[in-house]
């Protein structure tokens, strides 16, 4: 029953975030909290106009009453929309400045952590059950590596796994990211769908990565790891590893229901030579347990001749079994560490693998971050330098495969990578270069 003039007077003392929250109360508040007079005042207090224009604006604001009338013959909500878009553009400009600096080893921006903080970006998972009810898990722990960020969720109130249908991963950004207040789920935010995973028959349809005494790990592409309690087969934790390559775009430029589609590559037309094959490629490889690095290596001048193309793949040999000068040791405990409110542990013989392949122009060509496991091979080491058990690690997606062999040395209690081969899909290469291999 309060007159609109009184409500507008009250709303005129609120900041932008508070106005957006008030607008969620009901239709009347939404209409009044979008008043052009209020938002024009907010807009020019944050983005002052040039001196001559600013003077005229202040004169106009003095004679414009805070009412439901349209200011300056603008449509309702014009200055509100203009202010929000200006704030988003300002933050985007800051973020783009931060990601301009590229690490020459990885070909990726080297200030990703600062860029994520500047954008206010965070991530949530939404579990949907068979009755279409959504369960939102907000709080997450972050761990930053050279090429990826690992996001870890745990809760004491996970829904029963048997009733769950999907898990959705969203990037979440504040609608007004330039505010000085700390990020909170109580401020206006927008969601961007990054990935959607099917949880039907999780234990039967997905890949079992490993287990310890308490949990069993299951992997789903891209980069999802689900930990289940062995006793009850219920969710203990969820971990997602996101590669930095176009991470901000995937997390911010899509929509709540549609994933962001990466733009096609523009091929270097004067360097396409199907007869020669791939050449001058670089690989940066990280192996970590989600928090600590086991191995970090850069391999340059990789190539694949025409004769190495078979079965729909181009072969890039990174570490050769016969060349022991390039064999690489892994440091520390190889395993995936996990932690909940009450328990923590490490699942051995599995790890997170981060891969960035750069083409001859040093552009990211194939990138992923995913959990992988090490399986005991039936092969016996025939190398004089290594007498121990052989383990194999294989990863595959729609763009390629990674095949690695490691040997365990009992004397030094460490793993050595003795073979590492990349297989790039010819379909991926043809799409990248617009040619035909």
TrEMBL record:
GO CC, alphabetical: SCF ubiquitin ligase complex
Coiled-coil residues: none
PROSITE patterns assigned to the protein according to its UniProt record, in alphabetical order: FBOX
Matches recorded under SUPFAM superfamilies: F-box domain
Origin superkingdom: Eukaryota
Record-annotated membrane-spanning stretches: none
Cell inner membrane listed as a keyword: no
Signal sequence segment: 1-16
Keyword Transmembrane helix applies: no
Entry keyword set: Signal
Ranges where the F-box domain occurs: 1-42
PANTHER family reported for this sequence: F-BOX ONLY PROTEIN 15
Protein name: FBX15 protein
Gene that encodes it: Fbxo15
């Amino acid at each position: 029953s309060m007159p609109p003039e009184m409500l507008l007077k009250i709303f005129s003392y609120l900041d932008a975030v508070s106005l957006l929250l008030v607008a969620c109360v009901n239709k009347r508040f939404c209409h009044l909290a979008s008043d052009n007079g209020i938002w024009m005042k907010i807009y020019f207090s944050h983005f002052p106009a040039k001196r001559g224009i600013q003077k005229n604006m202040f004169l106009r604001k003095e004679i414009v009453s805070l009412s439901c009338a349209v200011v300056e013959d603008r449509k309702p909500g014009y200055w509100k929309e203009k202010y929000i878009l200006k704030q988003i553009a300002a933050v985007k400009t800051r973020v783009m400045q931060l990601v301009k600096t590229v690490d020459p080893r990885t070909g990726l921006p080297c200030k990703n952590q600062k860029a994520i903080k500047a954008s206010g970006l965070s991530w949530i998972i939404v579990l949907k059950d068979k009755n279409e009810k959504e369960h939102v898990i907000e709080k997450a722990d972050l761990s930053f590596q050279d090429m990826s960020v690992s996001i870890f969720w745990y809760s004491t109130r996970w829904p029963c796994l048997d009733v769950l249908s999907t898990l959705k991963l969203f990037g979440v950004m504040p609608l007004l990211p330039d505010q000085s207040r700390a990020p909170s789920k109580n401020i206006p935010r927008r969601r961007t769908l990054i990935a959607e995973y099917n949880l039907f028959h999780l234990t039967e349809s997905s890949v079992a990565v490993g287990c310890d005494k308490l949990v069993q790990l299951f992997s789903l592409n891209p980069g999802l790891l689900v930990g289940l309690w062995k006793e009850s087969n219920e969710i203990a934790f969820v971990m997602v590893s996101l590669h930095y390559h176009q991470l901000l775009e995937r997390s911010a430029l899509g929509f709540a229901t549609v994933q962001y589609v990466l733009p096609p590559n523009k091929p270097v037309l004067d360097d396409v030579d199907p007869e020669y094959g791939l050449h001058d490629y670089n690989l940066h490889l990280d192996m970590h347990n989600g928090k600590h690095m086991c191995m970090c290596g850069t391999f340059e001048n990789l190539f694949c001749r025409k004769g190495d193309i078979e079965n729909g793949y181009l072969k890039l040999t990174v570490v050769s079994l016969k060349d022991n000068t390039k064999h690489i040791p892994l440091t520390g405990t190889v395993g995936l560490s996990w932690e909940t409110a009450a328990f923590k542990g490490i699942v051995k013989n599995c790890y997170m693998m981060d891969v960035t392949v750069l083409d001859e122009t040093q552009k990211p060509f194939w990138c992923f971050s995913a959990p992988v496991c090490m399986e005991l091979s039936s092969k016996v080491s025939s190398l004089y330098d290594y007498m121990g058990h052989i383990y194999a690690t294989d990863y595959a997606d729609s763009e390629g495969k990674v095949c690695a062999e490691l040997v365990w040395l009992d004397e030094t209690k460490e793993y050595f990578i003795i073979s590492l081969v990349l297989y790039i899909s010819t379909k991926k290469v043809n799409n990248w270069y617009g040619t035909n291999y």
